[in-house]
Structure formats: structure tokens, C-alpha cells
């Protein structure tokens, strides 16, 4: 059976979980928590880099959430095609996947990282830059989502697997302004998607640990 090393509260783990849930792929979640040291030891042996999620498929260890989703489509395909077969459409899907990882998740995680730094080591300039980057991303996405149901159009894809958790945490780090109606509506559609709704529910026990304030909405 496939094994996914990670944690339900991680946005990048949720990204991989969405893909697994979309196609109802059987797997075992190997939780990376201090009280489960055997999982941590197995993970470290498979991937010394130490970044999760990591998918184990027999002797194959597959890191990186986007690559995990690509791997699943090749080796464990299901009815939901998350990367289109058409080359141009697949390129657009990957482009938007990169947008959500680089321009939403990266600045959002900067805000979280700064929040857990001790006093005297905080980076106000970096926080200001991250907030400005998120504001630009929100504006671009609001325009992009006008007239679209999902990130690339009518079909749920790899890009939406990235968008769902990244926009979830981004909104709780720097709220999306009310006038970005297209983006807010898209975020609500993502929350209603059964695969992501399941991931959100599974992560609820860890919400009080969110360093920018306990997540109560959604």
C-alpha cells in the first residue's frame, strides 16, 4: 500500500491528500509527530532532506507535492485527470500550480515563520514584503478567476489542489479584501469540494496551534 509521510495541518500535505482523495486511492498516512518517532525515523531514512510530504510506493520514494500528484496520475491513475493530456493545457495547469506555490504559499509561510520567531529576531521588512506580495497575488488571481469555475477553467486540476490549502491559510494570514469577489467565491468553491473539505476537517484538531491566531472560521 502507498504510504504518505506528512501532517494533516501542512498545506503541502493537504495538496497531496486532495489528489489522493479525488481518485479514492488507498494509502496509509504516516503521521510525522513527536509522539510517533518510528514514522520520523522511517521518513528520515527515505528522504534525508527532511521536507514533507513524501510518498512511498514500494521501493520508490517520491518527494514534493506537485511531483507526487504527477506520479499518482502516471502510476495510480483514477477517473479524475488532474493534469490534462493536451500539452498546452498541461503547461497552463503547471504554470498555475507554480503560481500558487511561489506567490501565495511562499509569502504566507513567511508571515507564519516570522510570527513564531522570538522577539529581537523578527523581520518587519520581510513581513511587509510578504504582505505586499500576497496583495499582488490576490489582485492578479481575482482578475484571473473572473468567468472561471476552477483555476484553469471548467476542470478541477493540479492547480486547484495547490490553490485550496494555500488560499485557506493565506486568508487566515492576510485576509483577502472583500472587493476581490471572484477570488473569494473561488475560495468558497474550493472549501466545498469534498476532497478538500475532508482535508480541512482532518486538520481541525491542530487549528489552535496556528501562530497567527486560532482558526475559527471555515
UniProtKB/TrEMBL annotation:
InterPro entries: Glutathione-S-Trfase_C-like, Glutathione-S-Trfase_C_sf, Glutathione_S-Trfase, Glutathione_S-Trfase_N, Thioredoxin-like_sf. PROSITE patterns: GST_CTER, GST_NTER. One of its GO terms (molecular function) is glutathione transferase activity. The keyword Transferase applies. It comes from the Bacteria. It is an enzyme of class 2 (transferase). Residues 1-80 form the GST N-terminal domain. The keyword Transferase applies. Transmembrane segments: none annotated. Its EC number is 2.5.1.18. Residues 85-209 form the GST C-terminal domain. Keywords: Transferase. Gene3D superfamilies: 1.20.1050.10, Glutaredoxin (3.40.30.10). PANTHER family: GLUTATHIONE S-TRANSFERASE GSTA, GLUTATHIONE S-TRANSFERASE-RELATED. This is Glutathione S-transferase. It comes from Sphingobium fontiphilum.
